[in-house]
Amino acid sequence: MAQYSSHLDGIFQALADPTRRAVLGRLGKGPASISELAKPFDMALPSFMKHIRLLENSGLIRTRKEGRVRTCAIDQKPFAMVESWLSAQRALWEARTDRLEQFATNAHKEGKSR
Amino acid sequence: MAQYSSHLDGIFQALADPTRRAVLGRLGKGPASISELAKPFDMALPSFMKHIRLLENSGLIRTRKEGRVRTCAIDQKPFAMVESWLSAQRALWEARTDRLEQFATNAHKEGKSR
């Protein structure tokens, strides 16, 4: 559970930056090399590499080096973790709405039977 | 678009912490006062208030002061923004899978017609 939680910390942290989200958007269309990914950004390569490493450490992307070229690809599992966390939140809200509706229905019935 | 992106930065940043996610989990069951929210955490109030302010600035919660009690409640809109960002990512992957399938089908047909 603690491990799941710290994994979520890293995923959300990785998503909290427009450059990293743009990289994920590009990789959503298919794998790409670091130099291809860096092209749209007006950023020095070492700064760009920090973003790539953060994405890789969070698990959102995998990278693989072949010869002198490092290729990056999306890993869908962390996205599924975020979706399942969001679903759990939504389930809490819906359970609450159900309880409120039940309460209102019972109050209405009690009012009628008086 | 830039505003939407910086809003997402703040939301993901707010979600990247186990205390803040636990507070959201508690508020998912219904509004609560700051002191009620702080109770499960072994944390000084000023530190806890930093988490509350970060959640409020991201839009994930709203707070309202009545007399000496500040009450917090979930705001669902930022959650919907995250869900829609995730759906957009998923749509990219699915479009790619469709293109790959189309390519494989065409290659198969071409192979047969030779």
Write the layout of secondary structure elements.
Two copies of one chain form a homodimer.
Chain A (H helix, E strand, L loop, with lengths): L1 H14 L2 H10 L4 E2 H5 L6 H14 L2 E6 L2 E6 L2 H37 L1
Antiparallel strand pairs in A: 1-3, 2-3
Whole-number mean pLDDT of chain A: 92
- H/E order of the elements of chain A? HHEHHEEH
> In what order do the strands lie side by side in the largest sheet of chain A?
1-3-2
Structural class given helices, strands, pairing of chain A?
Answer: alpha+beta
Oligomeric nature of the chains:
homodimer
Counting H and I runs of at least 4 residues, what is the number of helices of chain A? 5
The interface involving the most residues is between: A-B, 32 and 32 residues
Strand element count of chain A: 3
Tell me the overall shape of chain A: elongated
Proportion of helical residues of chain A: over 70%
From the alpha carbons, calculate the radius of gyration of chain A and give it in angstroms: 22 Å
**Which stretches of chain A are low in confidence, meaning pLDDT under 50 for 5 or more residues running?**
none
The fraction of residues assigned to DSSP E strands of chain A is 5-15%
Distance between the termini of chain A: 50 Å
Largest beta-sheet characterization of chain A: 3 strands, antiparallel
Folded structure, characterized:
Two copies of one chain form a homodimer. With 114 residues, chain A is of the alpha+beta class. Helices cover 70% and strands 12% of the residues of chain A. The first copy, chain A, has a three-stranded antiparallel sheet. In chain A, a hairpin with a 2-residue loop joins β2 and β3 (69-74). In chain A, α1 (2-15) packs antiparallel against α4 (45-58) and α1 (2-15) packs across α5 (77-113). In chain A, 21% of the residues are buried. The mean pLDDT of chain A is 92. Chains A and B meet through α1, α2 and α5 of A and α1, α2 and α5 of B.
